[in-house]
Amino acid sequence: MSAAAEPPTVLVVSCSLSATSRSRVLAEAAVAALRRRGVSAGLIDLQEWDLPLCDGGDCYDHPSVEPLTRRIQAADALLVASPIYNYDVNAAAKNLVELTGAAWSDKPVGFLCTAGGRRSYMAPIGLANSLMFDFRSLVVPRFVYAVKEDFDESGAVTDPLRERVEQLAAAAVDLARALDWLHAAAGPAGRPA
Questions:
Q1: Residue span of the structural domain in which 120 resides
Q2: Of 122, 169, 114, 112, whose CA–CA distance to 146 is shortest?
């Protein structure tokens, strides 16, 4: 993003590998919310990518890793939509971060999570901590946590859930703009002018 106040580019990553995923519905709602704000928004659906399991070795040479890394690197902010399994984000979300690593550096990251119950609302904290400490990502201090009752009979988001998605989208955009302003003010020396 440039100092000319261009709208940020926000990438939404749908991490569920299920064909009937409610977290994918949340990801699509986030893309729509971002576009209503005039923001360039893209969607990565991990169901469409053949990704290897991260083994710390040859996995990085897999042909799917480089294009995903480039897309994440090009984004000004990211929203991760993940189902919650066993009180944690799904393995596909963590695997994506392990494969694309430094592409997440110094970017705002927000979370949209779906779960079977209300008790695992703190599940994204482990991945959020890893992003903060390993890659200096800025975790958006608002996230969406939804359960089955937050969707209507057709599987669409209800109005209260849509409002929470809108608030997360706004917070991610605001943080990306503030970070861009800070970088522009720092100038080439890395300190505010």
A1: 9-186
A2: 114
In a domain, 80, yes or no: yes
49 and 80 Cβ atoms separated by less than 8 Å = no
**For 87, which DSSP code?**
T
pTM above 0.85, yes or no: yes
CA distance 164 to 179: 22
Cα separation of 137 and 6, whole Å? 21
- What does the pLDDT look like over 102-150, one tens digit per residue? 999 999 999 999 999 999 999 999 999 999 999 999 999 999 999 999 9
Is residue 3 assigned to a domain?
A: no
What are the Cα distances from residue 145, in Å, to 27, 41, 83?
Answer: 12, 21, 10
Count up the domains in the chain and report the number.
1
Which residues neighbour 126 within 8 Å (Cβ) at sequence distance 6 or greater? 88, 89
Nearest CA-CA partner of 18 in 96, 109, 110, 85: 85
End-to-end CA distance of the chain: 19
3 state DSSP class of 12 = strand
Max Cα distance, the chain (Å): 55
Burial class (CB in 10 A: 0-12, 13-18, 19+), 73: middle
Check which CATH number belongs to the domain holding 87 and give it: 3.40.50.360
